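Subject: Protein record for review, amino acid sequence with backbone structure tokens
Concerning: The relation between a protein's sequence and the shape of its backbone.
How to read it: Take the token row as a discrete description of the fold.
Enclosed: The protein record, placed directly beneath this head.
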Amino acid sequence: MSNHSVQTVSTSNDKYKVILAVFAVVAGIAAFYVLAGQSTWVRAAALVVGLVIAGGLLAVSDLGRNFVEFAKESVRETKKVVWPTRKEAGQITAVVFGFVLVMAIFLWGTDKFLEFMLYDVILGWKK
């Protein structure tokens, strides 16, 4: 027996939930602008209500549950990262700056050499 996970096809109810969530966000934003004459609290409340309704609809859909699971796994993986110390970060930065400086000098020298070869030797423009 294999342990392969099977991905199920989302139902049309989940599609409707996502569509309704998008409409709730759009309605909240529209209400924020339509209520321009009202106080800031009323406008903000309309926006927040639209976002909360959209979040609730997404939370009960498969897409929302999958996203929450993905976010939890991402946080778990981020905690496993070994971050460099301040000294290591400084050393790595110095190496990068050194490499950039060497490459800049190399490219400048290559440019000047090609300029000399093209204009002075081949074309004879600079005499």
Observations:
- The chain has a mean pLDDT of 89.
